[in-house]
Amino acid sequence: MSVVPFVNALLQVRDLSVAIEDGPEIVGEVSFSVLPGEIVGVVGESGCGKTSIATALLGDSRAGAVISGGSVFLDGRDILALTEAERQKVRGAVISHVAQDPALALNPMRRIGSLLDEVLRVHLPDLGKSAREASIAEAAADVGLPATREFLRRFPHQLSGGQQQRVLLALAVLLRPRLIVLDEPTTALDVTTQARVLATLRDLCRTRGIGAVYVSHDLAVVRELVDRVVVLYSGHIVESGGRDQIFESPAHPYTRGLLDAVPDIAGRHAVRPIRGHAPALQDRPEGCRFAPRCALASASCTQRPGLRETGRDFGDRRLVACHHPIRDRRDDTPIASRLISAAAVQPLAVLKGVSASYGDSQVLFDVGLELPKGYCTALVGESGSGKTTFSRALVGAVEDVEGTFDYDGRRVRLSGERDIDLRRRIQYIFQNPFRALNPRQTVGQILRTAALHFFPIRSADADREVAAVLERVALAPELARRYPRDLSGGERQRVAIARALICKPELLICDEITSALDVSVQAAIIDLLRQLQRESDLTILFVTHDLGVVRAVSDFVAVLQHGRIVEHGPADRLLDRPEHPYTRALIADSPRLRETAG
Length: 598
Prior knowledge:
Layout: E1 11-20, E2 25-34, E3 39-43, H1 50-56, E4 65-74, E5 77-78, H2 84-90, E6 95-98, H3 102-105, H4 112-123, H5 129-142, H6 149-152, H7 161-173, E7 179-183, H8 191-208, E8 211-216, H9 219-225, E9 228-233, E10 236-242, H10 243-248, H11 253-260, E11 308-311, E12 318-320, E13 347-358, E14 361-372, E15 376-380, H12 387-393, E16 401-407, E17 410-412, H13 420-425, E18 426-429, H14 433-436, H15 443-454, H16 459-472, H17 489-501, E19 507-511, H18 519-536, E20 539-543, H19 547-553, E21 556-561, E22 564-570, H20 571-576, H21 581-589
Parallel strand pairs: 3-8, 3-9, 6-7, 7-8, 15-20, 15-21, 18-19, 19-20
Antiparallel strand pairs: 1-2, 1-4, 4-5, 9-10, 10-12, 11-12, 13-14, 13-16, 16-17, 21-22
Helix pairs in contact: 5-7, 7-8, 15-16, 15-17
């Protein structure tokens, strides 16, 4: 259904469709508008079509896909009707793009100043050197970067992740475009760096009248940044409207499901994953595409619902494509925290005076931490604070490390060879399961190898262990015959957890294991970890920069700054009443779905 765009809109997307060449549709009949100075968020799970839309706004499509219909009017000109040469002139000058990964988007062989200068040379060949330098200095100031000669001569690898992302923003605003398209630009950033980048973007849009389309699966960020929201599911808009109405009173069951799956630093609430999975392109149903996952589905859902207006509850138009729109507001009732008895807290691991270095650079300074048996302790801090170095020291994966490590009452070496039983008892789950799983082995072979390595059992017994652990992490038995490349991100992460569990560990170290997952998959992993704790008294060290996840999963929190623990205590007390200025800053910078706790 075509939607009437806003009057005086900067961007008007009308019935945009993108499809696989000679294949199924990726995105269908998408329509929305962006006003000058406005930020519109486009949200949804992986595979819903967010990036296909972002790319199409530039008049482009990913390899193997084509823009099959619709129009993209920017300042009255249809981007899709221009020739490729005309679009080349528009990109950067009128519409610009900020990619998710600056490490891939920035040429590692080019200095920062050279990258900025090249954009000006290509689009404004008559501009003199002094004018180019002035433009570069202004763009750097816009995004909070120094324009000194020393900084501009740096290569991308000599910058922090936040500085790299700001360079992408500087490249995007250098030519004073009318519209910026941002595709998951802060996913890999810690909360402090993310907050600075988002504040920069918000200020640029407000002060310069730049419109922005912000593509993301991070709903807490979207809640704090955008003015309006477009919710995508399986290639179609299922709901759109003002930020407040979408987040406070979602009308589509899918939108409600997304919000219910997001952990929030503002308070401990039930985190509920959406059941099932989004359909593959070739398996999308004819009627409502969300119906197979929807508790409200009925016979009428075999017919595709049109996108229609349902009112102006918050002064904004709300459009919903649903036969059974929800009328009530979200339930924000908090849940009780896990009761912690001081008498019952017994340490499984005790670390004292831990210091670690990489070459001449010291990363950890006299760190001490106790991990209570049967509880989850979160280790938080900015990128570079030493979180991963500390957690890897627990498994003996750091060479230059000093200090003492007592595990279950016995002294353990922090570096050097460990006996096989200790390696079994302490298991590590990496952030990127695709890189951590052997691509040449099936899931069954990966798990079977781990079981046979640690236990002198027969092959038949190992196969039974594999089947049991797959069931324990809610994976179908038939996945044992598939390879990691055949699985979704959430399924691969469950396999990584299963590989650790099949070793029957006592301590599980989780290193940013939910940071790259969709909110619903993240909720399922959080739910799984809590269930494992209830069943087996598992001790967990959860390394993360997401304080919303910390609120949902952890019992205790340790805050690491510049290699030193600056605050440590029960999770709710620390998040609600932080004492250290650094902890207070982290919490203030963390995006949230709700305005206040509880």
